[in-house]
Structure formats: C-alpha cells, structure tokens
Amino acid sequence: MSLWDAGVDLGATLVKAVAVPVDRPLPSFETFVAPAGDDRLLDAFLLRHSLRIVAATGGGATTLADRLAPSRTVTVVDEFASWGAGEPILTARAGLSPAYPHLLVSLGTGTSILRMDENGTVARVGGTALGGGTLRGLGRLLLGTDDHDRLVALAATGDRRRVDLLVGDLYRPGGIALVPDLTAANFGKAFEPRADDVAHALLGLVGENVALLAGQIAVALASATEEGPLRRRPEVLYAGSTLRNNPLLVEILGGVTALVGAQASFLPLGEFTGALGALARVRLGG
Q1: How far, in Å, CA of 263 to CA of 182, rounded?
Q2: What range does the domain containing 201 cover?
C-alpha cells in the first residue's frame, strides 16, 4: 500500500484538504472540501489514504489534533505561514509569476490581506470581517438560504444596480469626479427588491469593499517600495474558498481593483493554499 501525506485547512465555513503520495512532488495533489464540523467526511477522506504526515492549519487545526490523538499525530502550522508556503507552489503550477512584493488576499469566511516578499517573508498587512461568512449570513437572513452555490446562481440572473444606490443616481454626468456606476451606498435603493438582485448586491457588498481595501493597500505598498513614479501596477492575487465557482465575484474584484490602480490576478485552486502550504512546511521541515 502506498503512503500519502495530507494537509488540512480547517476554516469556520469549509474544511479544505489535499493529499499527495510521498514519492510525488507537492503540486501532484488530490483535493477535498466539506462543510466545517462534518468530521465524518473529513475522517473518510483521511482514512482512504495510508498517511505518513498530517499537517493542519486554520482555526480548527488544534481541535483536529486533539480529536485524532493519540492514534494519529497532527502537526499544527501557523495559518499565515501556511498561506505563504502554499502560494508559490500554486502560482508555479498555474504558470503565474507575480512580482515581489505583492499582496495575497485570502477570501474565506473573513478576509486577510498578506504581503508576500521574495525571500519568503509573509506579513498580514490588513483584512476585513467581510467575506464568505458575510455572504452566507446575509443570504440566510435576507433570502432564506446560506448555500453558496444557490446564492451564486441567484446572483447570476440579478442586477445589483436595482438595489445599490450608484453615483450616477445622485449626480449628473460630469457632476463629480467619480465613475457613474460606482456604488455610493450598498442596498441604498432596496425597495421590495427581487431575490436575484439582492444576491447580486450581496456579492457587490463583499467584492467591492474587499477590492477597495486590497487595491489601496497595494498602491500604498508599491509607492513605499519603489523610488520615483511607479514602474508597474501593484499586484493583488486573490484566493480563497469564497471564489469557488463564483465568476461574478471574480469580475467585481477584478474591476474594482483596476479602478484603484492595481492589477488583480486569481489563483486557480486557491482555496487549497493553506492546506498545501501547511503540508509543504512540514514535509520540508519548515
């Protein structure tokens, strides 16, 4: 029977895991996703493999280590260090080459903004409580569902311009130095809105605010690290479980990031950055 190594990222909403044969490089991984708290599904995934290493990160990592002890040793790895180790593996796998320094935005239940330096240093430089947890919580309150795929499907047929108050609703063309389609107030004209418009507006609430914050931090970072006029557009790399099967959120993030003068990229399989990075740290002895 072949041996495997596993990395697990236990978030507040989802558990993400990867498994890699011990004789294969880290980019050759199987993936697993399940709702947080469903121990049976995670255990079934782990039991399908004869495991040599189990590395865990995220808020539930210590709980997993306690639950599996003493029959299984789980090595707990710092969350930000895990994301720092996982990102270069996934960018190389996807053929992406972000310049350093750049920002990595972990868009999960909430959002963390990490500065990535060429020497491997990772530092959290910002964040917001807005994220997938906001989307699901408000979806539950306003639409009666917190199912991610259902909310995304609803949003695909909606138009948040019927819910959000826009700059163009307040000013005539040329009346202010802002783009008319920019949101002036999220849900500012939500009078008996349709469910699909509300779902689209929820994506806008999360996406616009995350992108504004990340883009502004990226521009400030580039201004502080480059002498003279900026020679390149600062880069923001978005990843995380909230982006799964969510093209509308990707579109919003990309558009608003560009609007503030930064460049957005999106990391394929980015929801597994933490799990893969935790495993990389343990496998490589970091």
Answers
A1: 18
A2: 128-266
